[in-house]
Amino acid sequence: MSIPQAVASGPERREEITAQIVAQTGITEVMIEQLVRAFYTKVRADEALGPIFAARIRDWEPHLQQMFAFWSSVALMTGRYHGTPMVKHMRLPVDASHFDRWLALFEQTARELCRPEAVAHFMERAQRIASSLEMGVAGTHGVILGKGERFGRNKAAAAE
Fold it and tell me: Looking at residues 16-44, what average pLDDT do you find?
C-alpha cells in the first residue's frame, strides 16, 4: 500500500508553475517591467495607438503598474492582477487594425528585449488576449465574429 503524496496548496502550486515558466522562458518580473515600459513608449509614439491612449491616460505610472501586474499574471501565472480588462476595452474606438498594430509593437519590443523562448511565451498570450478583446469590442457593436473573421469599425457602423 503506497502512501499518497501531499497535494500542493493553491499558493504552493502557483509558485511551482511560476518557477517552471521562469526556468523554461527566462521571464522575470524585471523583464516584464522592462518590456512593458519599452512597449508603452512605442505605443505612446504610435500614430494609430498613441491618440487612443492619450485620450484616456493622463498619469502613466499607475497604468504601467497595472500592466506589470497584468503581464505578471498572464506570463508567470502569479495572480497579481485583479482587474477587468474586457470592460476597459469594450468601448474603445478600435478594430482589427488596432489589435494588429498592438501585436506588432508588442512583438517588436519583445524581440528586442527577450530571448526567443520568452518571446514565444509572451506572444502566444498576447495573441489570445488581442483576439479575445477584439471579439469583446465587436460584440459591443452587435457583431459576432465567426472563426477567422475580424472586426472592422466601418463594417460595424454600416450595420448600425
Answer: 97
